[in-house]
Amino acid sequence: MPNAEDIPKIVRGIRKALGEEKLPSDREDPFQVLISTVLSQRTRDENTERASEKLFSKYRSPKQLSQASLKDIEPLIKGTGFYKTKALRIKEISRILVEKHRGKVPKDFNELTGLPGVGRKTANCVLVYAYRIPAIPVDTHVHRISNRLGLVKTKTPEQTELSLLKTVPQKHWIDLNEIFVRFGQQVCQPRKPLCWKCPIVRECHYPNKNLKAKK
Predict the structure, then answer these.
(1) Pick from 38, 68, 42: which is nearest to 52 by CA?
(2) Residues contacting residue 94 through CB under 8 Å, at least 6 positions apart
(3) Alpha-carbon distance 208 to 37, whole Å?
(4) Farthest CA pair distance, the chain
(5) Where does the pLDDT of residue 110 fall: very low under 50, low under 70, confident under 90, or very high at 90 and above?
(6) What are phi and psi of 41, to 5 degrees?
(7) Using 50, 70 and 90 to split pLDDT, how confident is the model at 106?
(8) Domains along the chain?
């Protein structure tokens, strides 16, 4: 099982596979990160991107979204699945931000998880992508890849997060989600990982490696 000394090598290998030595460090809009991550729950990345683009082209602030009607919100996010529940949640989140936080998204983990529908992953995404505060958001990609590599042996994303926090040096926390998500989309895919093109295949503990490229 890889230890803390192996993490930098793994991170460098994944960045090499992505063709990027250093990831962008620009901060994203906190409100958009928060709402987009809520929309991303139990849906595909491309569905989240389309719905977010539609939603934020019409509603750009917590005040605007809190005042919108559900019948106007729902069609914009329908492609994400469970859209009626998500519409209720993002409208309620927006209302709370306006009434309790002066329209600002909190930087505090506990305040974030106190919002409706906001769990650990969503809160950590806000901390990392909006405020560049060290944290490890764990989605399906991070959970899958961490277990395949042998960085953790866990059954749930929350267990994976807590285990990674103990193993991964803090200087890698901010970048970990982004590089693992991209790596999971491009190389270490859910059903048929492209192990034959993976630069860290020797460090990987996944027993069902796919080592033959399609001809």
Answers:
(1) 38
(2) 35, 62, 63, 65, 66
(3) 31
(4) 59
(5) very high
(6) -65, 125
(7) very high
(8) 4-21+137-203 (1.10.1670.10), 30-130 (1.10.340.30)
Residue 139's SS3 state is coil
CB 93 within 8 A of CB 118: yes
- Let me know the angle formed at the C-alpha of 48 by 172 and 22, rounded to the nearest 5 degrees: 25
Are 176 and 168 contacting, i.e. CB atoms less than 8 angstroms apart? Answer: yes
Distance CA 23, CA 15 (A): 8
Plot region of 22 (φ>0 → left; ψ -120 to 50 → alpha; else → beta): beta
Tokens of residue 37, six digits: 């991550």
- Residue 22: the pLDDT is 60
Q: For residue 103, how many other CB atoms are within 10 A of its CB?
A: 14
Task: Report the alpha-carbon distance of residue 68 to residue 54 in Å, rounded.
Answer: 14
* Alpha-carbon gap, residue 50 to 75, rounded angstroms: 12
160 membership: H or E segment, kind and range: helix 157-167
Type of residue at 18: L
The 10 Å Cβ neighbour count of residue 97 is 23
Stated length of the chain: 215
C-alpha separations of 106 from 26, 28, 95, 99, 126 in Å: 18, 14, 14, 13, 9
